[in-house]
């Protein structure tokens, strides 16, 4: 038994809340593009509303942090031009200025990064719910954004809070490493180990959360079960997750270019956020279709064809909901979108003045015996 098979055998099999579909569907990126094109206005609205929840993060770290650094340096009255010559190197004011700048950045991450991430999580909960439904072909109304917040806020809050803490640790240690190498020329081995370990933990956390968030809005399971399934799916599809994450993060490398960074900001304001979230949801759906949904379908067929009852694997509850999610009156049903198409009214046969009768239609032909 291969390692992947061993990992797959530990999954708690459960069907997602979506409609019946082809789980082996290809062209997932084309599906992302077609969904974005089909729901342009909806995606724009979702992006703009979610941007309001992202505003504290953007304002704090892109606007206020730089302004505060400039004001503090000006207030301190440092002299960065005195005693510069061969053999002098950095002056005392230069070292003090570098320490102040990096100290301000450390304080901003320490005090503001996690709270800003917690605020952002609320908006992402509503956005993921709407994007999930669009990807499933389910109608989305404005109230569904707030329904998503109602249903999923606590999942996203825990995930973003954890990411905020891990990100704060990684940022603080990395800034400390840069500060020491800039002022003293080197850093201790402990700082290097701390910084590298923190960055690796932050990377693994981001990869795991990228799997867990879309799956958390797709499946109705307990919190522990959803975490376990997400970890196992991440290990099974690790290469795919890393590859897609690199492609999603690649545009942010342009932020280092002074001219292009403003273009990235504008794109993120209008459609960039929706596009990244749609790519993430698509990746989560592909992972779910290739693992949990396929296994569920296989076990259902095995249960139907098997006459003797064997030891069945642990299964979660399958959910069936109407295509219009508003048709579900209970709170649990608000999560589902579904699978069963609504019945179409039967058409009555046409009646008219045709040949062979008063009410139309040909008379039945009887064969002579």
Structural write-up:
This protein is mainly alpha-helical. The protein is 66% helix and 0% strand. It has 9 helices and no strands. It has helices at 3-9, 28-38, 40-76, 92-136, 142-183, 189-218, 223-236, 238-249, 260-305. α2 crosses α9 (260-305) and α4 packs across α9. Mean pLDDT is 83; it is low at 317-323, 327-332, 337-345 and 352-364.
Distance between the termini: 69 Å
Task: Tell me about the largest β-sheet.
Answer: none
What is the total tally of β strands? Answer: 0
Q: Any idea what the radius of gyration is?
A: 28 Å
Helical fraction: 55-70%
How many helix segments?
9
Instruction: Please state the structural category.
Output: mainly alpha
Q: What is the general shape?
A: globular
Order of helices and strands: HHHHHHHHH
Taken as a percent bin, the fraction of beta residues is under 5%
The overall pLDDT average reads 83
Q: What can be said about this structure in brief?
A:
The chain is mostly helical. The chain has 9 helices and no strands.
């Amino acid at each position: 038994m291969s390692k992947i098979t061993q990992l797959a055998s530990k999954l708690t099999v459960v069907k997602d809340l979506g409609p019946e579909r082809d789980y082996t569907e290809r062209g997932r990126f084309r599906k992302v593009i077609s969904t974005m094109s089909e729901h342009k206005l909806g995606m724009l609205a979702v992006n703009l509303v979610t941007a309001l929840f992202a505003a504290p993060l953007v304002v704090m770290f892109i606007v206020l942090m730089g302004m505060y650094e400039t004001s503090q340096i000006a207030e301190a009255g440092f002299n960065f031009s005195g005693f510069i010559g061969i053999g002098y190197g950095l002056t005392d004011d230069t070292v003090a200025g570098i320490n102040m700048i990096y100290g301000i950045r450390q304080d901003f991450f320490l005090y503001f990064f996690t709270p800003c991430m917690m605020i952002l999580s609320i908006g992402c909960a509503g956005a993921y719910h709407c994007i999930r439904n669009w990807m499933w072909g389910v109608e989305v109304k404005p109230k569904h954004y707030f329904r998503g917040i109602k249903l999923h806020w606590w999942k996203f809050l825990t995930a973003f809070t954890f990411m905020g803490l891990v990100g704060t640790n990684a940022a603080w240690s990395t800034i400390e490493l840069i500060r020491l190498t800039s002022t003293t020329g080197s850093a201790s081995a402990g700082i290097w180990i701390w910084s590298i370990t923190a960055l690796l933990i932050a990377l693994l956390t981001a990869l795991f959360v990228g799997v867990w968030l879309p799956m958390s809005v797709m499946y109705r399971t307990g919190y522990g079960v959803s975490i376990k399934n997400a970890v196992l799916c991440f290990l099974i599809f690790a290469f795919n997750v890393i590859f897609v994450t690199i492609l999603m993060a690649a545009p942010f490398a342009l932020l280092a270019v002074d001219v292009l960074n403003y273009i990235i900001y504008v794109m993120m304001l209008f459609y960039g956020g929706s596009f990244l979230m749609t790519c993430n949801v698509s990746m989560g759906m592909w992972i779910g279709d290739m693992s949990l949904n396929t296994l569920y379908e296989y076990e259902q067929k095995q249960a139907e064809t098997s006459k003797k009852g064997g030891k069945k694997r642990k299964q979660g509850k399958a959910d069936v909901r109407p295509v219009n999610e508003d048709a579900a009156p209970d709170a649990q049903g608000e999560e589902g979108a579904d699978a069963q198409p609504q019945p179409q009214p039967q058409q009555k046969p046409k009646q008219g003045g045709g040949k062979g009768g008063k009410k139309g239609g040909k008379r039945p032909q009887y064969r002579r015996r």
